[in-house]
């Protein structure tokens, strides 16, 4: 009756690649000493009242090209429709020839770039660390952390790039990230299994949550399947079903904005206790057990900080 759409390991592995490059670049920034230090203050977006939205005229064909270019880029997954349009409106097309340096390590960051076509090499201290092709993006670190460029980017073929300036990048993308973090942090504080987390640990989880959309009738998790992921409902409604003795699906619960489910998947490998189905369009954020452990360590260790909560959750897990 239902088709499972649980999130798998491929997304975790994809995020690992982004995280590894980010860590390498940040290590490079840190190694340069005091003058290039990164300040937490720099993560705060410019005051929204000072921001005037940029609108660069574009043809429908150009807008479609931008849509395709940013479609699978992780930085744009959380944007709502208005923010997405702000990004498209503000982007400027840049065509560059082979061998041109788009940004240079140690330079001042002025633009964030996304690649529509062509290939580019990323060099740190003159050593190639990765390359970019269509759909790739670069230049965000200097804008996010108000620091010099962490790498040099060189075109290895003719390229078409879309550029977003510093102010627009910080206002659209970083303000969105800060808003989402506050909302997710509030949601996470209500999850019993996570009540022992320190605020800084909750921030890590909030930043690692991945958005996922479901259409009406889509199955989020399926009864008796082995669970890997925990879900928070950001927007929409879900219905919970359990299989009755006669084999029919019986509704047992409903959830909406701010509710969560599947959290015991972070704790054990027991089968899912119910099937969860989207009732209309459903927007969730999700986190896998492997990603959680990679960020914070085993969940059991965190639970043991609070013995009362520890025993309550264990009782629930063993029911």
TrEMBL record:
Subunit and partners: Tetramer, composed of 2 regulatory (R) and 2 catalytic (C) subunits. In the presence of cAMP it dissociates into 2 active monomeric C subunits and an R dimer.
Segments of skewed composition (Acidic residues): 1-14
Protein's UniProt name: cAMP-dependent protein kinase regulatory subunit
Molecular-function GO term, any one: protein kinase A catalytic subunit binding
SUPFAM superfamilies, per database record: cAMP-binding domain-like
Family statement drawn from the similarity comment of this UniProt entry: Belongs to the cAMP-dependent kinase regulatory chain family.
Disordered: region residues: 1-21
Binding, 3',5'-cyclic AMP 1: 140, 149
GO cellular-component term (any): cytosol
Record GO biological process: cellular response to stress
Annotated organism of origin: Absidia glauca (Pin mould)
Keyword vocabulary terms for this entry: cAMP, cAMP-binding, Nucleotide-binding, Phosphoprotein, Repeat
């Amino acid at each position: 009756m239902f088709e499972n759409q649980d999130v798998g390991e491929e997304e975790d592995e994809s995020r690992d690649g982004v995280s590894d490059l980010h860590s390498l670049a940040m290590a490079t920034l840190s190694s340069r000493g005091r003058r290039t230090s990164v300040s937490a203050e720099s993560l705060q977006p410019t005051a929204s009242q000072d921001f005037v939205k940029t609108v660069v005229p574009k043809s429908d064909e150009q807008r479609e090209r931008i849509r395709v270019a940013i479609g699978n880029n992780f930085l744009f997954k959380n944007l709502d429709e208005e923010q997405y349009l702000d990004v498209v409106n503000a982007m400027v097309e840049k065509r560059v020839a082979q061998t041109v340096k788009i940004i240079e390590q140690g330079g001042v960051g002025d633009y964030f770039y996304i690649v529509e076509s062509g290939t580019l090499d990323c060099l740190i201290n003159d050593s190639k660390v990765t390359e970019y092709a269509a759909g790739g993006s670069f230049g965000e670190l200097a804008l996010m952390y108000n620091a010099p460029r962490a790498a040099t980017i060189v075109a290895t073929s003719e390229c078409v790039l879309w550029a977003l300036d510093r102010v627009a990048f910080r206002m659209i993308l970083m303000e969105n990230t800060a808003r989402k973090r506050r909302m997710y942090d509030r949601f996470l504080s209500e999850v019993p299994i996570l009540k022992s987390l320190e605020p800084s640990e909750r921030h890590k989880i909030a930043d690692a949550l991945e958005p996922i959309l479901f259409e009406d009738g889509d199955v989020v998790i399926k009864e008796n399947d082995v669970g890997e992921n925990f879900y928070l409902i950001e927007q929409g409604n879900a219905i919970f079903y359990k299989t009755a003795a006669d084999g029919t699906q019986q509704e047992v619960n409903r959830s909406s904005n701010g509710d969560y489910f599947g959290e015991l998947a972070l704790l054990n490998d027991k089968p899912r206790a119910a099937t969860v189905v989207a009732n209309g369009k459903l927007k969730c954020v999700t986190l896998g057990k492997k990603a959680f452990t990679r960020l914070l360590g085993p969940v059991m260790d965190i639970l043991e900080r609070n013995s009362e909560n520890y025993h309550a959750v264990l009782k629930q897990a063993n029911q």
